[in-house]
Amino acid sequence: MAFASFDSLSDTLSRAVRSYHDRAAQFATRQIDCATLARGLIAIENLWLTYNTERTARMALFDARRSARDQGLYAGVDSVESQFEQSHCQRP
Amino acid sequence: MSLVLAVWLVVQGVAPLRKSDLVRLLSEPAMTQQEIAQLVTRNCLSFDPTDRDRQDFRRLGAEPVVVAAMDGCARLAAARAAAPPAPAPVRPVATQPPLPAVRTPPPPRPSPERSGFVAGGGQSGPAGQRLPRALVFEVRDSAGAPLVGQVVTFTGINAWIEPASLPTDAEGRASVGVTLGERVGYAIVLAVAGVVEKQVAFKVSAGAVAQLAVACGATDLTGRVVLRPDTVVVLRVTAHDAYGNPAPVAGLRAAVADARMFRVLRIAQDSMTGTVALKPDQAGTTSLAVIANGLRQYVTVTVPPRAAPGRVDCP
Q1: Does A82 contact B23 at a Cβ distance shorter than 8 Å?
Q2: Are B23 and A52 within 8 A, CB to CB?
Q3: Dmax over Cα atoms in chain A, in whole Å?
């Protein structure tokens, strides 16, 4: 089972989570609006869907490092959703 | 451990589920759709699903029972939001002096800090098997005293609990038997005693191998197969337990009844899958026995003439 593409997907998701939190900081200072913040949420959720679909085929072969990273990504996506809920923006 | 985390996150308390939780639950086989629907009904959602969300869930295979649970949750939230404020209590007309109140001490309550599983955790076993040791939940109050007769209710996810509910004994303990469910991965047992809710996880492995499956490409071979001549055909061999869970392939061998028809070129196996490469040599029909995990799977193999191969099943 190839992990190269999966690891790359994990990197992308990790970057997207960081990018979202950058947006959230801009939203807090009114530099961007709800629509821009919502686009960040959609990007994260689309990646999360793809990530979980790919993860299911590989999780039996996860080593400790990938398991830990998986938990970190889960927590990261959870933090994005939590932030969006607190923004009071309309869910896209 | 990630699977434990996933299930753990969503069954904690009554925290509403986020979309990330539902995506994870729907994308892995730890819980059935019915169990996910029960979780949604019990915990509800932290968001109002939009059409985009519903489409995402359907893409992940969400069945009507899950969608209905989400809709029910949304209706409940809307009804709560629209409900009028509770009317002010009506004061009764006093016709006679009230009876003096009898002060009774409040019953001791289970303490979340001092109650929990005290034995039987950390076990593992094959799917469908009863765990050898009983699972014991102990209920104590905030002072550490055992609570006798406190009803503890157990719920199993990918597990059956016997009995599902019982009062604590003189030591404040409730013991139950746990039979692991049919799915490989993890089983979760929830215990609820008053306001206390705790969970414990068990690892579920595949049971004894009950059947072998032989496939060529995406086609499962059952009974008969016609091989393409003048090529090397690779058959994939997998093993499954009685519940269909994949199990490790062990001791893979293959034998041909008439070696003039085709030869077994090579046999390879990793932890979960084996392969058998065949080289057809001569037109005819013979029998191939695939042997692994002490089981045999027979396939009648036909090699058509090279000049007119006609329809072939594999590859």
Answers
A1: no
A2: yes
A3: 45
Strands B185-193, B151-157: parallel, antiparallel or unpaired by DSSP? antiparallel
- Interface TM-score (ipTM) > 0.90: yes
pLDDT tens for A25-62 read 899 899 999 999 999 999 999 999 999 999 988 887 88
Question: Do you find a cis peptide bond into B315, omega within 30 degrees of 0?
Answer: yes
Taking alpha carbons only, the member of B39, B45, B1, B7 closest to residue B24 is B7
Q: What is the 3-state secondary structure (H, E, C) of B179-236?
A: EECCCCEEEEEEEEECCEEEEEEEEEECCCEEEEEEEECCEECCCEEEECCCCCEEEE
Question: Mutating which of B27, B28, B183, B270 best tests the A interface, going by the most A Cβ atoms within 10 A?
Answer: B27
The residues of A whose Cβ lies within 8 A of any Cβ of B are: 42, 45, 48-49, 52-53, 55-56, 59-60, 62, 67, 70-71, 74, 77-78, 81-82, 85, 91-92
Least Cα distance to B156 among B1, B250, B31 occurs for B31
Three-state SS string over A6-75 comes to HHHHHHHHHHHHHHHHHHHHHHHCCCCCHHHHHHHHHHHHHHHHHHHHHHHHHHHHCCHHHHHHHHHHHH
Mean pLDDT of successive 10-residue stretches along chain B, which has 315 residues: 45 70 86 84 86 92 89 69 48 45 68 92 92 95 92 89 92 95 89 87 90 86 82 91 90 88 89 89 89 90 78 74
List residues of chain B with CB under 8 Å from any CB of chain A.
1-3, 5-6, 9, 18-21, 23-24, 27-29, 46-48, 50, 52-53, 56, 59-60, 272
- C-beta atoms of B23 and A49 within 8 A: yes
Closest Cβ opposite residue B27 in set A53, A71, A85: A53
Task: For residue B215, give both structure tokens.
Answer: 């496939």
Q: Which of B23, B50, B272 sits opposite A92 (nearest CB)?
A: B50
Facing residue for A81 by CB, picked from B20, B24, B50: B20
Count CB-CB contacts under 10 A for residue B225. 21
pLDDT over 60 (residue A79): yes
Candidates A13, A59, A65, A89: best to mutate against B (most CBs of B within 10 A) is A59
